[in-house]
Amino acid sequence: MDKSRFKLILHTVIITVAACGADNIAVYIPIFIRKSTFELVVAFCVMLTMAVILFGLAVVISKDKRLGQFLNRYSKYLTGTIYMYLGISVLIQCGTISHFLK
């Protein structure tokens, strides 16, 4: 990989992490605040494992043209659905919805 391509990838990663940081904090703090130390360690290990698996999956997907075309076409629907599910799950698990319904 040449130096300019590496710099582009590095800048993309930095911008992505900076842009998504607040969202991640907003999602994970309500979940993690109720966990024991052991549960936090397990969650960290699971998240690290999933990150490695998803990175590998992203590499495989990037090489498959048909799958890439499908994801390019439907990614906005998939992303929206995943975010809605995640948000609703966090609200239910943390008791936010039941708190407001009281």
From TrEMBL:
<feature type="transmembrane region" description="Helical">
    <location>
        <begin position="40"/>
        <end position="61"/>
    </location>
</feature>
<feature type="transmembrane region" description="Helical">
    <location>
        <begin position="82"/>
        <end position="101"/>
    </location>
</feature>
<keyword id="KW-0472">Membrane</keyword>
<keyword id="KW-1133">Transmembrane helix</keyword>
<dbReference type="Pfam" id="PF03596">
    <property type="entry name" value="Cad"/>
</dbReference>
<feature type="transmembrane region" description="Helical">
    <location>
        <begin position="12"/>
        <end position="34"/>
    </location>
</feature>
<protein>
    <recommendedName>
        <fullName>Cadmium transporter</fullName>
    </recommendedName>
</protein>
<keyword id="KW-0812">Transmembrane</keyword>
<dbReference type="InterPro" id="IPR004676">
    <property type="entry name" value="Cd-R_transporter"/>
</dbReference>
